[in-house]
Amino acid sequence: MLTAQTIGAPVSDVFISYASADREQAGRLAHAFEALGWSVWWDRKIITGQVFDQAIEHELDTARSVVVLWSPYSIVSEWVRNEAAAAAARGVLLPALIAPVRLPLEFRRKQTADLGNWRGDPQDHGFQALCAGIRHLLGQPPATSNPPPPWPPQLKWSALGALILVAVIGFFTNNARQPPTDTAVTPDARPMTGMASWTTPLTSPAGLADLIVGTYSGDVISDAHGSSRSGVLITVTRLGPDRVRIHSDYTRVGTTDIALQRVDQQVLADGGDSSLIVYLDRQPPAILFNPRLELAYAGTRQ
């Protein structure tokens, strides 16, 4: 039974489904959609006095589009998976990846927007693809980009002259900075800049496994068939250059062998039925692990 606050309430253009750990990304996306003029519903808009599950069910059943944010946390969330299934049944599901994970089987054939590197840029290709899907479901015309008006001829020549002047100045400046021809400049003599503040190397001649081996301490933050649990230790051991074994005394985590791949500063699982992300650019390195896509573990290396 719906409460008085939901009866006659306006239909939302966009419903955002997400795991609680991804609230920051969901909020950023909600604000971006609202800036485009769309009405957005996410669970922060539940009015005091409303029954939580009834309010969500009403909004989910009436929203004109449903954006599901897939992450290591949401793929093991029964709430998110049920909301995605309900949206797919109505033909309004718009999935988006906010982290590199292996999607639940029933959603892998759906075209998915990639928001893994999105930080609010309205011109991001993944964000633009997601917005195109929303416009389609709302019956709105595709977005058009208007080219800038042509420059008047006098401004064209002024700009060209400025570019030539900058190029000439840059040429002579660079030549003036060159060392004499009889001075040998070796790589060791050059200043080192941008040095990472943490100790894990970004590359390893022995393979990816050596970058992530060790003991990690953290928590099981969600479990499709159990409860959350704090203070869980997992051990990552090397099986080969690009293959590791992940083991924990906590039986729900168990033991899993993982093949590895590298994407920027992240080491990921390469295939298989488990998801793994190790963030090398954090100090200490952080891990997100989803054995058999049944639970979500988050920890840091000791």
UniProtKB/TrEMBL annotation:
Keyword match Endoplasmic reticulum: no
InterPro entries found in the cross-reference section: TIR_dom, Toll_tir_struct_dom_sf
GO BP term, example: signal transduction
UniProt keyword Transmembrane, yes or no: no
Q: Which UniProt keywords apply?
A: Receptor
Domain TIR spans what residues?
Answer: 10-164
The superkingdom of the source organism is Bacteria
Protein name (database record) = Toll/interleukin-1 receptor domain-containing protein
Q: What does the organism's lineage look like at the top?
A: Bacteria, Pseudomonadati, Pseudomonadota, Betaproteobacteria, Rhodocyclales
